[in-house]
Description:
Helix content is 18%, strand content 28%. Strand 9 (150-155) and strand 10 (161-166) form a beta hairpin. Helix 6 (457-467) crosses helix 13 (695-715). By secondary structure, it is α+β, with helices and mostly antiparallel strands. Bound molecules: calcium ion (CA). The site of calcium ion has 6 residues, from loops.
Amino acid sequence: xxxxxxxxxxxxxxxxxxxxxxxxxxxxxxxxxxxxxxxxxxxxxxxxxxxxxxxxxxxxxxxxxxxxxxxxxxxxxxxxxxxxxxxxxxxxxxxxxxxxxxxxxxxxxxxxxxxxxxxxxxxxxxxxxxxxxxxxxxxxxxxxxxxxxxxxxxxxxxxxxxxxxxxxxxxxxxxxxxxxxxxxxxxxxxxxxxxxxxxxxxxxxxxxxxxxxxxxxxxxxxxxxxxxxxxxxxxxxxxxxxxxxxxxxxxxxxxxxxxxxxxxxxxxxxxxxxxxxxxxxxxxxxxxxxxxxxxxxxxxxxxxxxxxxxxxxxxxxxxxxxxxxxxxxxxxxxxxxxxxxxxxxxxxxxxxxxxxxxxxxxxxxxxxxxxxxxxxxxxxxxxxxxxxxxxxxxxxxxxxxxxxxxxxxxxxxxxxxxxxxxxxxxxxxxxxxxxxxxxxxxxxxxxxxxxxxxxxxxxxxxxxxxxxxxxxxxxxxxxxxxxxxxxxxxxxxxxxxxxxxxxxxxxxxxxxxxxxxxxxxxxxxxxxxxxxxxxxxxxxxxxxxxxxxxxxxxxxxxxxxxxxxxxxxxxxxxxxxxxxxxxxxxxxxxxxxxxxxxxxxxxxxxxxxxxxxxxxxxxxxxxxxxxxxxxxxxxxxxxxxxxxxxxxxxxxxxxxxxxxxxxxxxxxxxxxxxxxxxxxxxxxxxxxxxxxxxxxxxxxxxxxxxxxxxxxxxxx
Length: 716
Ligand code: CA
């Protein structure tokens, strides 16, 4: 029988039982989500988080006919990172500011919309955009975490609030961007904020009442007080000094979780240190448990079972919150129950998920902070440049990581993991002084300008952009090696979906949505969606028809801070749904060309430098490195005369607080604000100057930077 014959036979079998699956999905149905072929019931489709759909109607022989079935405008222009959930013909997704949508999965008709009305100034606590990665479902409930730290249970038929509970201490800059997970009668949610100064934890709430069942802290609190768990008593011995618990310590559980129902183990990935710099955070040394770790907990009690720390004494923002996938792999003749992760630090890890034992680790992108992972000790071996206590060091990867939150996908037939990988580098050093600014302030103790010999990151920006690249890597987790890769023009791209029809789907920062052959990486289909994609696609079926859905809306950590030249952003956020034989057209959006104006200015070099340092510390995370911006927030190079006139009251007193621009009077003086203003004007003028140049000169410069970038990439 031909491949196509096998595929259609399988489809016939699937076709016959889809229409009669009726779900008000209970816990047992979530456990068996893989056999519910038409639905997408949990974040990563199954508790194993493989993101492999068993649907095969859309396959290599007919993918030419894949077209847009419908699209839905979310009414937002910030980053969209959600994995939609699909239950019996209804698709539930989320957009910026934690809004939730329920649409008819066939027609796209909006059934209801829930806006948790997050106060916009809380967005100043979000390091990485006001994104949300989706909802969880159980029975007739949906659960969503909000940017301002609430967990909300909704009736999934009406969108009405069933209960709502505050999961954070609102005197601290916590945020929720991750999707909740439901296990038995509990809903689990973590939070973020380690760049600003918080202590990480994960909480479990009762699904019916919203009552707290358990909470697991990932790093110790005040060492003079008894810790909340024996795990924290153990962890406390790996920290030194006093600053860590005053700042918070970090280790936030801001994204990934996985669950093994047979072992009843919940796996959580923990984040970086707070502050980042280990010499300041824990000056007497120590591994600082459980930063950058995978921790296994008993799902019913939150009790610690085992941990594996990917980056002991983390100091580079190398979180281990990246997507974890559970699978059973044949390794050296033995079927192993494994957990796989490709965290920011650049290593691909295969662990025994029963015990946490390290099976293997290999770098999947070029790295310079460690030479390898010692399989006997399970620890990375740091290189000579890793410790930046005395001088500045260019280090791979940058805080963006070799892989960020964008989910991977694992195909059980090819045995390959598809990783949305990145290559990047950054300067790290240890500032001589560090002052903790309580509130919505960047507190990483990592000053990427001070003490830097040679070109500054600012001067390096045009070049750096060319050193930062994104690619999709098909990785063999047994052999620990790359099988194929697809190079992208942007570093910051979408998460992955794979299907049983030997397909891999992914969107890019340029706004191209593509399907690839899972075995070879050959591109089989592509469409231009006009807006950058960072979210992972999903697939579902209704009435025997298969659909592929993805959210388009560039933003997130890279989107806000680094205006990638080739990225498309700032257009209307959309949920896009494709099926065979459909030819719907995307509503066109007219993109306005930015117009920069020249401003008179008189600033000394000292003022400009002070302005730049302060801008990088307080403004850059939302308005972009080098004041370059893709239209997600206000582009400060195009401020109106009114904004220029009101610059001081806006920046100091928070005149525009209600739209998210908080005041900085607690950390900035009037002359600081004036220096920042001058620095912004200088950036605007330089942009204006560039716009006056002839096109041939601009392309020559780009070509030149590409060549120099290539050479530097080899040297650094
Ligand atoms: Ca971080």
